[in-house]
Write a structure and sequence with these properties.
Signal peptide: 1-17
Keywords: Signal
Radius of gyration: 18 Å
Structural class: mainly beta
Strand content: over 45%
Order of helices and strands: HEEEEEEEH
CATH architecture: Distorted Sandwich
């Protein structure tokens, strides 16, 4: 009996340590704006629930092409629709990319109500220089009229 209990206890502790399981989630694109030659393409979104809501862990995979400047930070963030706007950033949310193309994987835990986006931030100024919102159809209805022209207001370098 002691050996069986120990095996069960060990197996349970591994299950708890692994955390919640993520599954692929269907998403739609929302407002977006890019400089000529820049692209962020989402190839897969995995999350702990299909609702992409507060408490969910999210992993976004995709491809990028950056042509408008020598380098940028490709970031996965949440624009809050309720809350004070403050947000802690995890290093898994940001990837420094150089001019050219490649693949990415970024991760985020949703801590507030809001809408997810992938955004390029200029490596020197820190200003947003291109991006795309994405999420559930209901979330994209919520931000359908948002003006993201500020993404391309900083001239390419």
């Amino acid at each position: 009996m002691g050996k069986a209990f120990l095996i069960c206890l060990v197996a349970t502790s591994f299950a708890v340590a692994a955390g919640p399981t993520q599954s692929s989630v269907q998403t739609v694109l929302g407002p977006k704006a890019f400089h000529d030659g820049d692209v962020i393409e989402i190839t897969d979104v995995k999350a702990t629930s299909p609702r992409l809501e507060q408490g969910d862990s999210v992993t976004v995979q995709g491809r990028f092409r950056l042509e408008s400047r020598p380098a940028a930070d490709l970031s996965l963030y949440l624009t809050q629709t309720k809350g004070d706007g403050s947000e802690e950033t995890d290093s898994r949310q940001i990837l420094r990319v150089n001019r050219g193309s490649g693949e990415f994987e970024l991760k985020l835990t949703i801590k507030h109500q809001g809408v997810l986006h992938l955004t390029y931030y200029d490596a020197v100024s820190g200003k947003p220089v291109g991006g795309v919102y994405f999420g559930t159809p209901k979330q994209m209805e919520q931000c359908a009229g948002w003006d993201v022209s500020y993404y391309v207001s900083a001239p390419p370098k």
